[in-house]
TrEMBL record:
Family under the similarity heading: Belongs to the complex I 51 kDa subunit family.
Keyword Iron-sulfur: yes
Protein name: NADH-ubiquinone oxidoreductase-F iron-sulfur binding region domain-containing protein
Superkingdom of the organism of origin: Bacteria
PANTHER family (alphabetical): NADH DEHYDROGENASE [UBIQUINONE] FLAVOPROTEIN 1, MITOCHONDRIAL, NADH-UBIQUINONE OXIDOREDUCTASE FLAVOPROTEIN 1 NDUFV1
Native source species: Streptomyces huasconensis
Name of a matching Pfam family: NADH_4Fe-4S
Disordered: annotated segments: 502-528
Gene3D superfamilies referenced in this protein's UniProt entry, alphabetically: 3.10.20.600, 3.30.70.20, NADH-ubiquinone oxidoreductase 51kDa subunit, NADH-ubiquinone oxidoreductase 51kDa subunit, iron-sulphur binding domain
Swiss-Prot/TrEMBL cofactor(s): FMN; [4Fe-4S] cluster
Residue span(s) of domain NADH-ubiquinone oxidoreductase 51kDa subunit iron-sulphur binding: 325-369
UniProt keyword list: 4Fe-4S, Flavoprotein, FMN, Iron, Iron-sulfur, Metal-binding
Length: 528
């Protein structure tokens, strides 16, 4: 079982360091050491800063990869058109269990991030800076950095800067969730589509980008576009930060120029010589089989060309001794548990997709496989945020990358390998997803198969082919408590009740081995 990654794992560099300059000298670059290592930074006007970002082809490093110059210009145009001051937001909410690159930067080089954010704020005329974080270590480091610069959230200041602490949740790092929390609301996507560049924090145009993106901007502003572009590929210059975890002997964050072969980075971390597969881009990313991974190069375009993704910068190999579909099932359960519970594609679709993959592994045959494919198709492009889309892409990639193992499970008796649990996952349940300590129970002596319960709480109760609930009882997560109570009240046969769960309220362990028994059943068919 792969242990959880520390906030600040080992840091390595391939070639000359840019973002990690000075890491060999001290554990954390305070303001004095930061200036000794990187030197002073002169302010830039808005259009020269946008041209610089365009010349170095700077894209967001949080996963979406949107061109930074276009985002900067969009915010500036909206601010001028509406006659309001824009806001700058640094997204340091790195909540995937397999990602630590931004956490490392905030803990060890916070002033490089602040340099880029303050550069953008000065260019835009912004008077508010918000830094979103989710960990104790990143909050402490960033608060210290602001104090070292004499910045704070004081009224009357030329720039009001503050740290916004949110819980460790996959969805809290989504841009609209971070904006919502900065305005005093819950750290969840609001459920409506809105461009942050038009209406963000306080309704003002907001420049929101990932922590590494601002650090890259600060480096380029110091050394200039020409020197910056001498590193890495011509079309994607510079370096990237990657988190190496999974089946490696040395989990690490590594700074590497674009264009370096992926196999070299894997060897650096002690991955298997020929991994069974490599998950690229994190848990919203895509799998590469071992042969393809051996030929891939580190860049956004290079990984996409071979079916992978740069995404959030996580690279996770797995060895031959584990079932890749079982490893993916563990991640699918985790992704489902990270739902905000606000929209159907998340709180219904993702648990259904996880159950679908489990059905495939338990011998559901081609019917179960087709049902899984149908679920992943239906959740895409329908959510309040990108969590359903990224999760569906991960599952589709799993099915496409491990065809031999898939055939063994669908057409035979399985691959015969255990699930080693090499992909890191968080042990704690998010508050909304944690068990409530209550169970929704069906009284079979009263149930008449009306099916209203399945309409009200489909995430807990599904109907079997006979029209009756397929479960006798189900643990109720906190976000489903209100709907579960409504289902009890509306049951015409009074066949439902909510009971206190006598077992301790803990998060159920994610599967580390495939369940015994291979009753050929399809998705949602028959009683469990």
């Amino acid at each position: 079982m792969n242990a959880s990654l520390p906030d600040v794992p080992e840091v390595r560099v391939v070639g000359l360091p840019l973002l990690t300059s000075g890491f060999d000298l001290v554990e954390r670059l305070d303001l004095a050491m930061h200036l000794k290592v990187h030197g002073p930074l002169e302010p830039m006007a808005g259009e020269p800063l946008a041209r610089l970002a365009e010349q170095i082809a700077l894209r967001g490093r949080g996963g979406a990869g949107f061109p930074f110059d276009r985002k900067l210009r969009a915010v500036a145009d909206a601010a001028i058109r509406r006659g309001v001051r824009p806001v700058v937001v640094v997204n340091g909410s790195e909540d995937e269990p397999a990602c630590r690159k931004d956490t490392v930067l905030i803990n060890r080089a916070p002033h490089l991030i602040l340099d880029g954010a303050l550069l953008a704020a000065e260019a835009l005329g912004a008077r508010t800076l918000v830094i979103g974080v989710t960990r104790d270590s990143t909050e402490a480091s960033m608060r210290t950095a602001l104090a070292e610069r004499g910045l704070g959230d004081r009224r009357g200041s030329a720039l009001r800067a503050r740290v916004q602490r949110n819980p460790v949740r996959m969805v809290t790092g989504e841009s609209s969730a971070l904006v919502r929390s900065a305005d005093g609301g819950p750290p969840l996507p609001p459920g409506r589509k809105a461009r942050t560049s038009e209406y963000g924090v306080g309704g003002a145009p907001t420049l929101l980008s990932n922590a590494e993106t601002f650090a890259q901007l600060a480096v380029a502003a110091r050394i200039g576009a020409d020197r910056y572009c001498r590193t890495g590929l011509r079309e994607e210059p510079g370096t990237v930060l990657l988190t190496l975890a999974g089946a490696v002997t040395r989990p690490m964050v590594v700074e590497v120029p674009t264009g370096v072969p992926l196999r070299y980075v894997l060897q650096l971390a002690g991955a298997p010589a020929l991994p069974q597969g490599v998950l690229t881009g994190g848990y919203h990313g895509k799998w590469l089989d071992g042969v393809t991974a051996n030929e891939a190069v580190i860049s956004r375009a290079g990984l996409e060309a071979c079916g992978g993704a740069l995404g959030a910068g996580a690279v996770l190999p797995i060895g031959e001794g584990t079932c890749p579909l079982g490893e993916s099932l563990r991640v699918a359960h985790w992704l489902a548990s990270e739902s905000a519970g606000q929209c159907g594609p998340c709180y219904l679709g993702l648990p259904a997709a996880a159950r679908g993959l489990a059905d495939v592994l338990q011998g559901g045959g081609p019917t179960a496989l087709e049902a899984l494919r149908e679920v992943t198709r239906t959740v895409k492009r329908r959510g309040a945020c990108k969590h359903p889309d990224g999760s569906a892409a991960f599952l589709e990639s799993t099915i496409a990358a491990f065809t031999d193992d898939l055939a063994a499970h669908v057409l035979g008796d399985g691959c015969g390998r255990p699930v080693a649990g090499v992909l890191p996952l968080q042990a704690e349940a998010p508050p909304a997803q944690a068990p409530s300590g209550r169970r929704l129970a069906v009284d079979w002596t009263l149930c008449q198969g009306h099916g209203l319960c399945a309409d009200i709480v489909p995430e807990l109760i599904q109907l079997g082919p006979d029209g009756f609930p397929s479960v006798a009882e189900a643990a109720v997560p906190r976000y489903s408590e209100a709907r579960a109570s409504r289902a009890v009240r509306r049951c015409p046969a009074l066949a439902l009740r909510i009971e206190e769960d006598p077992t301790p309220v803990t998060r159920p362990a994610l599967p580390t081995a495939l369940p015994p028994g291979r009753g050929r059943r399809a998705l949602g068919s028959g009683r469990q």
